[in-house]
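# step 3/5: fold
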Amino acid sequence: MARKSHVQTTINGETVEFLCESRQSLLEVLRDELYLTGAKEGCNNGNCGACSVILDGRLVNSCLVLGVETEGRSVETIEGLAEPDKLHPIQDAFLENAALQCGICTPGFIMSAKALLDSNPNPTEHEIRYWLAGNLCRCTGYDKIVKAVMDAAQETSA
């Protein structure tokens, strides 16, 4: 039986402790140990962006980060974005622009958009497309997603 490590981290602003094997990815820990299932497993090799989260203010693919690497760090997931009675402006923009269909890629796109708007509150369309290039969608195409991020940027910078 593999030895488990004790990890204490902050997830969505709350201190969290968990046990994980040294080989377990952050994605596996989020989904299987902490039951935060918003981040999706698409490719499990860092190519699709469906598992995107923000680690210490930086966008990462949670399938490529080990759970033990989050010790003492801060993780933001899609579950921490909305308030109990109000969606985040990015989430609202995705709904208003019909920028989602099956939902597999949506959390990753939203977290990527949040990371972009945190670092650049007024991006150009070109900057948005470049920033979101690490996220793949097989249903909607990208125009509605880009429009949603542009609308969210206007909303959050107003």
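# step 4/5: annotate
Residues 7 and 18 are 5 Å apart (CA to CA).
# step 5/5: archive (pending)
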